[in-house]
Amino acid sequence: MSAPRAKRITLGVTGGIAAYKAAELCRLLVKEGAEVRVVMTPAAESFITPLTLQTLSGHKVGRTLLDASEEAEIGHIRLADETELIVVAPASADAIARMAAGMANDLLTAVVLATRAPVLLAPAMNVNMWENPLTQANLARLLNTGRFFTVGPDAGALACGWIGAGRMMEPAAIRDAVVERFARAGELAGKHVVITAGPTFEPVDAVRFLGNRSSGKMGFALAAEAAERGAHVTLVAGPVSLPTPSGDIDRINVQTALQMQAAVQQAAANSDAVIMTAAVADFRPLDAASGKLSRREGPTPPLALTANPDILAGLGASRTGGRPLLVGFAAEVLSDPLALQARALQKMAEKRCDAIVANDVGDPSIGFGSEENAGALLFADGAVVDLPQASKRAFASAVWNHLVGRLP
Ligand code: PMT
């Protein structure tokens, strides 16, 4: 395993029985050559002593916000600025909720709020707490910022006596996730990638539009992952309510397919890859009414449509020398994987792209608006990669793992 040499890692330990495993994780990270600063919440001290973690990390443990002696040694803002990665292990339901609310009422949440570094969460809690929609919504909020990612939890017998998901991953698995993160950090350095996300809204009149249920989460996750790996990203976003992920990301907001086409064509000209996750409307109203249509103005007006340009097919037809790499997403309501892949292959050929993700959007747990996705990544050279169901961020990471080596 290649070591995260001289990397500055903050290990956040929150209150839960799995806190005892933080000692082993701290030891493993130090063994890998990382400089580890431990920050404990007050609740964590009920499960493991600061002295244990101080001895293993070789540094005084951060315990209190606004403590004069601790601030003199390394202030919370300096810690937030200098850290390259925060690992919260275990990440309790309470800590996840407070981070999601943007609270900073202890040293750990203050450092998490103040840092620009990525945050790896290793959740650990009772299965009912884990499955509670409030916990899942809090976690989704963090993941959608593009700055947080998770390892685990595992399923099995829990300390509380229940059996199910909620067990913290073993320290070695968390260490592996950290090492993998650092190994990938510069993989896309010097590359410019264009990613489209969200729906397009095609105006019917001054207040109404034709749109779809794309939330933008898939495209934003791909953008966050690319930026995390060192790419310069142009994110062409339809009307969505997501924050721009941190990193070197230029966001261009558009409403319609024609606006998206103009933005993509311009950005693609000097790019290495274009990934189209946007659900572009195939049709738009022929003539949008200038005011607000009203039933008082007479009989129901007909809605005549005209075709929008196919942005991806346009790029496929006009590029030369295989640059940029073109990747599409095929959204189909087809639960049979073979039929789904056959349809996606057909789209890839029609649009002359290099790869396409076959996406069954008929399943509400994946696809439009959901927190997770699943499918297959198909390449024009015949390679097929199965992408199992995972958070959109983990799905994005898997997609990039297979694209990195194919960039021109
Ligand atoms: O945004 P989320 O809520 O996270 O949902 C993600 C998603 C389900 C929207 C995404 O994973 C997805 O499947 N995106 C593709 C949506 C789509 O429009 O699929 P399509 O099969 O109609 O189009 C195939 C490809 O052509 C797509 O890459 C699309 O961006 C592109 N296209 C389509 C029409 C058009 N006029 N121009 C295009 O470039």
Q: What can you see in these coordinates?
A:
This protein has 408 residues and is an alpha/beta fold. The chain has 14 helices and 19 strands. An 8-stranded mixed β-sheet has the order 12-11-8-13-16-17-18-19, sandwiched between helices. A 5-stranded parallel β-sheet has the order 2-1-3-4-5, sandwiched between helices. A two-stranded antiparallel sheet has the order 6-7. Helix 4 packs across helix 6 (107-114) and helix 5 (93-100) crosses helix 8. The longest helix is centred in the C-terminal third of the chain and has 15 residues, at 337-351. The chain is elongated. It starts with 7 loop residues before the first strand and ends in a 5-residue tail after the last helix. The model has no long low-confidence stretch (mean pLDDT 93). Ligand PMT binds next to helix 10, helix 12, strand 16 and helix 13.
| Oligomer kind | single chain
Strand content: 15-25%
- From the N-terminal CA to the C-terminal CA, the straight-line distance is 28 Å
Mean pLDDT equals 93
Counting H and I runs of at least 4 residues, what is the number of helices?
14
Amount of helix: 25-40%
**What is the 3D form?**
elongated
Count of individual beta strands: 19
User: Could you give a short account of the major beta sheet?
Assistant: 8 strands, mixed
- The radius of gyration over CA amounts to 24 Å
Decide which structural class fits the backbone: alpha/beta
